[in-house]
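Comment thread on ticket #2218

A.B. wrote:
> Attaching the input chain for the structure job we discussed in standup.
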Amino acid sequence: MAPLTGTRVIPAAWSPHHRPVVEGSFNLACEVWRPGNGPPPFGQDEAPPVLVWPAAGKTGYCRLQQHATGDGTKVTADQAVQVRDYLAVLPYGVLALVRTGESGDVLKADGRTYQILDALQGSEIWECDLLLQAMDGN
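C.D. wrote:
> Ran it. Output below, let me know if you need it in another format.
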């Protein structure tokens, strides 16, 4: 079934209209930090970590869940290592602030630290989806 001629299945401004609905489901206080040391452009040696989000004095909320990817075993230096991948959903505006990858930012939530590996993209975006990996081994 096709849409009516001259109409769209997803109307213009659909994503911005639905962003508050997604944010209403956030139930975990979280923060995005930029580590202070690492290769440029991701920091300078012996510089303190910088809070990226939320603004100082505010509390940011997100949704976090384990991301099912096989049995969680990866091989590093010929050693099988158990890793856990997670999906974090944050407000849409955070997407422009986050740096991803090995030298990227970290998310801190529920007393744990997660490396931000990637930010998921799409044609209709009403949230910031981040692929994470637990840094504390769990």
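A.B. wrote:
> Thanks. Noting for the ticket: The helical segments are 14-23.
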